[in-house]
Specification:
This protein has 102 residues and is mostly helical. The protein has two domains: 5-51, no CATH class; 60-101, S15/NS1, RNA-binding (Helix Hairpins). The protein has helices spanning 5-13, 17-32, 38-51, 60-78, 83-101. It is elongated, with a radius of gyration of 18 Å. The two termini are 25 Å apart.
Length: 102
């Protein structure tokens, strides 16, 4: 598939691909007819990133969950009796393990 040059430059410098991709679609969607074609655009970006070997080693959603779990762990090291945070940490860890399977 042909990749617009604007999109390739965006993917090369983007740390948060999903955020930058949605901004790209908002700004240039009519130009490239990308407004209603969500899954096609994401497939196109994944293909482009794999082809140019600039895909992140860890997927974006997984790294965000790991960061969130680390923040909760840090909070729990200061507030050991926070049962709500303990429960949330269990939920976050289960989401991480579910994502790792796929």
């Amino acid at each position: 598939p042909a990749v617009p040059e604007d999109l390739s430059a965006l993917v090369d410098k983007a740390n948060n691909v999903r955020k930058h991709l949605s901004m790209f679609k908002k700004d240039n969607g009519a130009k490239y007819r990308l407004i209603l074609i969500n899954s096609r655009v994401h497939r196109l970006v994944r293909y482009f990133m794999k082809k140019n070997s600039c895909a992140p080693a860890v997927p974006e959603d997984l790294s965000a969950l790991v960061d969130k779990a680390n923040n909760v762990r840090k909070h729990l090291s200061m507030f050991k009796k926070d049962n709500g945070a303990k429960y949330r940490l269990i939920l976050i860890n289960s989401r991480v393990h579910r994502l790792v399977r796929y």
